[in-house]
Amino acid sequence: MRVPDLLRLAIGNLRENPLRTILCALSVAVGTGALLLIAAIGLLGQEKVSDGLKTLGVSGLTVYLEDHGAGNPLSSELADRMEQAVAEIDSVMPIKAKSGSVWAGHASTDVLFLGADERLGEVMQLELVAGTLLSAQQADYAKPVAVVGDELARALYGRDNIVGRSIRVRLDGQDQYFTVCGVVKEQTSAFGSLAASFAPHLVYIPYSCLATAQDNADQVFVQCAAQADLSSVSDRISRYLTGYGQVDGTVRVQNMSGMVDTVKRLTNLGVVLFAVVGAITLCVALIGVLCSMLAAAYEKTGEIGILLALGAQTRDIRRIFLLQSALLCALGGLCGMGVVLAVLFSTIALLPDWRMMAGLFALCLCCGIAAGLLPAVRAARLDPIEAMRK
């Protein structure tokens, strides 16, 4: 039989029971759509997390204390001495964090204040939008200046460049006015709009506005030399702080690049797990297609016998059922991918790579052929005389 004849018979078989065809195609559409959605969002999430970690931008090491007792605190002064003692350190920056709120007119929002100094640009990779970062004079003399994110600037004043504007800061229950000296790209926006909606806005102010040089810092960010062995530097920092620094507590030195790799591995694991769930959904749909094709082969036993009696070859019977199964899965796959593409484009303006969609469509066809293989073989093995009696 010619291919057009086989195709016409396969389509005719699908049309004879439209409800079963629609239900089977719908199950394949759900499985295919789930796979495409998981793959697209998973890859987008990987990209956002990777870019976000780079934008958060702490390179090198982070030092902090656990179980701090009555000994010396991890202070700004101690961090400066540590920088001089460990040759592989390019710069250090103590960080003090406090939650609070900022006001501009009737607009207000909760923020996280980070006390930093003039080394802010060296240690953290901030993209400057307008103005300048903190200067040494501002940091040393506790000048009431602030560096804010562009999204916070838009929330307060409706535009990005608010350099020179005043904001009312509420810290520890007290209000004071700060002048905006710089606007940077909001770091949380690198993780996407969903993450940014939950993450607090960051406001950088002079460290001395939050703590004295002798107060305990929450963390110390360490920028190492380009060729430095981070593991060796970590050991030297720990020995210095526990020995010469006389800090009381457990010194923790964390490799930020290692944290980035860990987050990436966890993200990859999440994508794999969700992909497995999508694959299981597609497999369940294919089992439904297999059962449907077996039922169709049983219902068509008499017609198969007539075709064989009229001279049709067994390979023609196999091709009819394989085509029928492949068409069913192709229809479901196209519908599922079409719906997911429309949702992705309308919500987050994302279009998956065409190679991903082509590969998923090819997978649907292959699975359809696999699901129709058993019914096709069974139908082709029927004895024409016995088949016509049924």
Question: What is the strand content?
Answer: 15-25%
Choose one word for the global shape: elongated
Mean pLDDT: 79
From the alpha carbons, calculate the radius of gyration and give it in angstroms.
33 Å
Low-pLDDT windows of residues: 189-198
Count of spatially separate domains: 2
Strand order of the largest sheet: 2-3-8-5-7-6
- Count of discrete alpha- or pi-helical segments spanning 4 or more residues: 13
Look at the helices and sheets and give the structural class.
Answer: alpha+beta
**Amount of helix:** 55-70%
- How many beta-strand segments? 10
N/C terminus separation: 24 Å
The SSE order reads HHEHEEHEHEHEEHEEHEHHHHH
Largest sheet: 6 strands, mixed, barrel
In a nutshell, what does this entry contain?
With 390 residues, the chain is of the alpha+beta class. 56% of the residues lie in helices and 19% in strands.
Spell out the blueprint of helices and strands.
Elements: H1 3-16, H2 18-56, E1 61-66, H3 76-85, E2 89-104, E3 107-116, H4 120-123, E4 128-131, H5 136-140, E5 145-149, H6 150-157, E6 166-171, E7 174-184, H7 193-198, E8 201-206, E9 219-224, H8 230-242, E10 250-255, H9 256-299, H10 301-309, H11 314-348, H12 354-380, H13 384-389
Parallel strand pairs: 3-8, 5-7
Antiparallel strand pairs: 1-9, 1-10, 2-3, 2-6, 2-9, 4-7, 5-8, 6-7
Helix pairs in contact: 1-11, 2-9, 2-11, 2-12, 9-11, 9-12, 11-12
